[in-house]
Amino acid sequence: MKICVLVKDVPDAAVQKRIDPGTMRLDRSGENTLNPFDTHAIEAAMQLKEGGELQVDEIVAVTMGTNTAQRALQKAVALGADRSVHLADEALAGSDVCATGLALAKVLESEAPDLVLLGQQSDDGECYTIGAVVADHLKMPSLTQVIDMKVDGDKIRCERQAEYGYDTVALTLPAVISVGDAINEPRYPSLKAIMGAKKKPLDTKSAGDVGIDASQVGEAGSQTTVISLNEPPVKEAGEIIEDEDTAETVEKIVAWLEERKLI
Amino acid sequence: MAGILVYALHDDEGNFNKNSLGALSEAAKLAGELGTEAAAVIVGDIADDAAAGLGKYGVTKVYRAKNVQEGLAQPIVDVMAKVIQDDGFTYALFGGGLLGFEIGAGLTARLGAGVTMEVTKVKVDGGKLISERPILQDSKIADVGYVSEPGIIIGRLNAFDIVEGSGSAEVVDVDVELSEFSTKAEMITRGEQRGADVDIEAADILIGGGRGLGSADGFKDCEELAGAFDNGAVAATRAVVDAGWYPYAAQIGQTGKTVAPKLYLAVGVSGAIQHKVGMQNSENIVAINKDANAPIFEFSDLGIVGDLNKIMPKLTEAIKAKKG
Predict the structure, then answer these.
(1) Any residues with CB less than 8 A from the CB of B205 and at least 6 apart, and which?
(2) Which of the four, A20, B112, B142, B198, has the lowest number of CB atoms within 10 Å?
(3) What percentage of chain A exceeds 70 in pLDDT?
């Protein structure tokens, strides 16, 4: 079977993210990296492959984005993916959730996976929704925020925390599963894997290659529009203590609590 | 009819979710401003009077799909898509919660609709709805409009207040043929509780523990510290509950509890949005974290950048000593 892992390149967490006031889009010109949540999805795919209960022939990392996205794909390959697919097209720029989900579904369709895995959220967009959008287009059962997967015949038995406690749900393959960060501790790539990543196959595909109608993606296909960008209400900055002398720090905390009658 | 359709989630005993009731109230208010009506969708075997009772929150109609199971998103997408298409709703609204995200996302694909998530406020402007959506770790707020109908709005946890009045809604049973793939997810068990049944909602002082504690053992120090206060208890983040370090009943946030104690003292908690939404209304917030860039310091009244393993035991001692 084939597992596709959806990955995304995001601005490095250490970099101050900003919105380009002209386009109202996230400025992606700085240092980018593989979305940290996606490393859990790749690790989950690797554990299914190594677990041996399913015969996993291939793990394919799939992304959509500009040229910088190839770095995320290389990292995904270094973590274990066998090859990668990059959907890149000017027509995709400015896609909202609706348009992005459609484009990703189309590129996945061209791979015909038995299982699609992705991280629970992206570090930049924080949308949590792409998995469920893609699943509906692919007409596959899906579940998000999954923290445990067990193979059960042609089904995957998933656990996740929902509104009232833990749910256990069995999904019949093919399926789309978004994994929570508690599902595993991703491994570190070996130096050899990092060096070898550039040699693994990377296919670049245009929107037309996978049958995407350009009017349904990008700004043209987006169904939401950012009207304005505003500052949140100003909250008075709290007091910060750098702990140098712990006895003194504790004294300050206790005084602060006493002042507010909390002790 | 034009109007706003709201999904109302319930537990296995048929109790409706507080965030859903907030969404019903919000939809009724917005519908009033738009000169239209709000309706609810429920699934499962909910009694007539309980369904009609949702009218208290301002909806005039309740669509009930009796044969559809609660708790899985895709069958509910089938139900809502049919109701929206048959009766021409212009917006779908969801209260905060995991299932609302999944159903809203499914509807986006099914109907080719615009979606906004983590919405903290909805405004009416020129006969249309505009969502306020915080982005970039809440450092900016985007006002987002919808290009086409319907618009899908997924609220943030606790974004919408419950307004309870009188009134009764008309209950309409809907019979929906499920998509084939919607039947390929099977609920084995729902709402399993893990760990002890602890009560954190009655506490005046909460010590919130996160991944920074390093291991389950770190919670012993939290319990010591909570015990040093009057009416103190220990709460936890989703990450550590999923890791099995502390009971689910103590969890704060999106899929846990919402609390507003006199003091919330966060130790080793980074302050992810999903945690923040469950405790940001605490009267006083104190955070101890070794990472000076942790988001929790953005909304703390007092922040201590340092090693919690050094600070917590000494703080416990000092508070005990004060009380004599």
Answers:
(1) A262, B226, B229, B230, B231, B232, B233, B261, B262, B263, B265
(2) A20
(3) 99
